[in-house]
Amino acid sequence: MQQVLEEKIAFADQREATALLGERDEYLQVLMDNFDCRFISRGDTLAIDGEAQIVRAAAQVVRELQYLHRQGTTLTMHEVRYSVGLVKRGKGEALHSLFSDTILVTSRGRHVRPKTLGQRIYLDAIRKNSITFGIGPAGTGKTYLAVVMAVAALRARMVEKIVLTRPAVEAGERLGFLPGDLQEKVDPYLRPLYDALHDILGFDTYQKLLAKGVIEIAPLAYMRGRTLEDAFVILDEAQNTTPSQMKMFLTRLGFGSRMVVTGDLSQVDLPRGVFS
User: CA-to-CA distance for 238 and 144, rounded, in angstroms?
Assistant: First the structure.
């Protein structure tokens, strides 16, 4: 005989109820589609009843989303679906540690934390190792999270400066046709790094640190002959480096420094035969 259970979850107010259930109960509909039990929303309370095991799983998702919301995160369909997926795969115990791992708070007050277990593993690797390679498709947070970890290390005074670099490889256009001096020509290639720093630090703080030399953004060619100590160094778009360039970069690592190398092997822009 199946055990029947009812769980009641109280919301702080109607605003929290809307944040957790969705503007038009869209998040509640995801729960109803994935858990074979009854959901009854009345004012500031959500009642869940049905088979005990299923009810506990559904309640766990709602409570973890409630915790995340109270930590200052704006819930989206990603958090809801990902939470449901983890619980249904029997990995619900990882939800709380995933959602509670705030790396830093941006200039706009947004809490930055891993959104997936893969991102959590990536961040743990950066914390534990002097050199970390992050390989994955575009949009998985490789560069942004590396920059976040760099800023967090700078704030904690674990490093004295941040060095961000990319290979200036042409992707269909020629650098010679771009206006300006060499730095202005390579700036478009470094734009993702600028954008990440602006979002995390705010424009004014970013400009001050850049002017003081605490943050340095340069093409990969500028790394030759240097030894980087007490620095957090990020090489972005590393799939566009040659073996000799990669060897040159990795040997820049000095005492007290840490490196993160990111890339997407499906987006190589190097000319054919460059590795031969």
Answer: 15
What is the pTM for the complete model shown? 0.77
Residue with tokens 């703080």: 205
Q: What angle do CA 101, 104, 106 make, to 5 degrees?
A: 135
Q: How far is CA 229 from CA 110, 130, 133, 183, 253, in A?
A: 31, 12, 19, 24, 7
The closest of 148, 79, 80, 140 to 111, measured between CA atoms, is 148
- pLDDT, residue 74, reads 81
Cα radius of gyration rounded to whole Å, the chain: 23
Amino acid at 104: L
Q: What is the pLDDT of residues 127-162, one digit of tens each?
A: 999 999 999 888 888 999 999 999 999 999 999 999
Q: Which two tokens stand for residue 194?
A: 């600028």
Task: State the sign of the Cα–Cα–Cα–Cα dihedral 182, 249, 159, 99.
Answer: positive
